[in-house]
Amino acid sequence: MSSRDSVFGSSSQTFVHLSKDSRVHLWDVASKKERKSYVDKNHLTHSFTSYAWKTTKDQTGGVFVAGYSDGLVGIWDLNRGVQSQIIGKANESEVPTDIVFSNDSKSIFVSSNENQIVQYDVATGKEINSIKTGKKGNLKLAMNPKLDVIAAASSSIKIIDVATGRKRKLEASFSGGISALTFTPCGRFLAAASTRTRELLVFDTRAETEADAPVFVLPVRGVVTGIDSKVSKNGEVISLLAVFEDAGAAIFELDANYSNAQSNGVNLVKLELNITSAQPILAASFGSVGNRDDAGVVVAVGAKSSPVFKHIDLNSAAPAVSGSTNSVVQKVLKLNEHGLVSETTTQVNGAKAGAEGALFAPEVLGPHEMGGMKRPIVGASESDAVEESDGKKKRKTSESSFIEASSNANELSLEQRLESLSSSLTRLQDGAEAPAATSAGKSALTAPTSDSLVTLIDQALQSGDDALLEQCLSCGDVAIVEATARRLPTGRIVLFLRKLVAKFEKRPSRGILLTQWLACLLRHHTAYLVTVPDLSYQLAGLSQMLEQRLSSYSKLSSLAGRLDLLMSQVNYRDAARSMQEIVPMQVYVEE
User: Fold this and answer.
1) What does the alpha-carbon distance between residue 564 and residue 402 come to, in Å, rounded to a whole number?
2) In this predicted structure, what is the pLDDT of residue 349?
């Protein structure tokens, strides 16, 4: 399975990572050593936009095809270590968005922002065929392993017969684009994930089925960057492995013999395994390390320059299902430096879940936190942790809560509640500023400068120190924030943006403070950000949140205008009454 810049070989014995300097690094999974690094002569003038890898049976290398930002397509012979073919002209050809191999591995299909898919011969690099896809370009491709059928996706998905060009459109809309697309090994099912919605859709592509809508809709915990799949020996169970953008993965086991009456697929999920890791997950694939049993998952975690390969044995990790065969088992697995740690296991009856209508429905929507778990409060102490009592979870209320709860909260008027909310937002805007000294003996804290903040932010991003980053973000001086954003090195801009967006999604109430940093970064580094190829994927969450927050702005503005009109009329009437001469109703004259 491939992610944006990392991919395992067909049997998970080799691993390839694409570095930012356009080098191809080939790793041996069993020995955990880098075999070789491949670099082309123009590696500093362009970057990777897409790739495809076809390994050999002996796992010695194979053929690696890379698409570059200047429109070129390079075909590498990893066994010989040479670039055998270069397709296209630099800065003239369309930039490739995705590449897939044909079933016989003799040709490749290349998509771009144009409304066609071009087929090239691997040996000669010459164009063989051109397939029209419609009015829009294509972001992702997937080749059916059993038929000469290709899936092309942009804002929708089309199934195209390579020989005849016949098209079939699936009933699904992806407004933010497709982040992952793959066929199952049996060629029957197609899995797709969007860059915005936290869902994994599974379609049945058999010709005899007329249902173009997804037969499975699987809620996931983040943006999916890669999908791998396998089928049981009897063909009755489909397993999907999804890797998320920020340190997470999930495994779903689906019933291939689904019922058309239950096309949403919620009751048909037999097993859900959620994998969490303290380190970033680069890629994952069904397979094994060395001579282990292949009933497992191989995960590459850690730094991209020196990945660590870990094996998860699904035979021991997957709990046995007891009772009804329509039950769903949910389990959370955690990867750390010492291996695999099992966290929690729950079993839900499928019929009951179907009656409730939301088996995996999230209680709180947050960044990469979809599911039945509430989002933790940032900065909460141990006293704020969840305590279990009589089988029910209760959360302690601390003085540091966003809005302090009181026993007579229901007796407060609307005005008092708004005042409390306003004061809480003001304290939150001030960030982590130290309280004023209560005694004259305490000295005032030294205000930070842009020089110190640049150094501290760089150190916090490099070491992953979130506490140090929070101290830097607590600075509310506009001039210092502007100077710091202007002087940040370009190599840290994208990572810093992702950190700010994640914090914004977790605590939208901090928007006044965080949007100040976001605006400064976007204003001073626009020229660099427009050159980042996948920036739209990384900032999709921010765009979605801003659209949601601005959707009610026009209505609130209209309401504010009407209220201003009413208040002006009231003031006018009061002023008119005060200007009228007061005449007594009766006058009594005493004689």
Assistant:
1) 31
2) 47
The b/e string for 529-568 (b: 16+ C-beta within 10 A; e otherwise) is beebeeeebbbbbbebbeeeeeeeeeeeeeeeeeeeeeee
Averaged pLDDT, 41-50: 86
Q: Please state the φ and ψ torsions of residue 559, each to the nearest 5 degrees.
A: -65, -40
pLDDT of residue 579: 65
**Confidence (pLDDT) at 155:** 82
Residue 352 φ/ψ, nearest 5 degrees: -65, -40
Q: How many helices, marked H, and strands, marked E, lie in the chain?
A: 12, 31
Could you tell me which of 236, 199, 238, 203 has the C-alpha nearest to residue 220? Answer: 199
pLDDT above 50 for 473:
yes
Take residue 400 and report the two structure tokens written for it: 């540091």
- What pLDDT, in 10s, does the model give residues 108-117? 999 998 888 9
Residue type, position 232, single letter: S
Q: Is pLDDT at 207 greater than 80 in this prediction? A: no
Instruction: Render 497-551 in DSSP notation, one character per residue.
Output: HHHHHHHHHH-GGGHHHHHHHHHHHHHHSHHHHTT-TTHHHHTHHHHHHHHHHHT
Residue 268 is given by DSSP the state G
Residues 6+ apart with CB under 8 A from 448: 472, 475, 480
CA nearest neighbour of 52 among 122, 113, 152: 122
Which tokens in the block code for residue 273?
């395994």
Residue with tokens 């076809």: 54
CB 81 within 8 A of CB 38: yes
Give 79-104 as a DSSP string. Answer: TTTEEEEEES-TTTSPPP-EEEE-TT
Contacts of 141 (CB under 8 A, 6+ apart): 98, 99, 100, 109, 111, 117, 150, 151, 152, 153, 181
Share of the chain above pLDDT 70, in %: 71
pLDDT band for position 397 (50/70/90)? very low
Q: Quote the CA–CA distance of 220 and 248 in Å, as a whole number.
A: 10
Packing angle of the helix pair 450-463, 466-473 (nearest 10 deg): 150
Both ends of the chain: CA-CA distance in Å?
A: 111
Give the residues across from 253 on adjacent strands. 239, 271
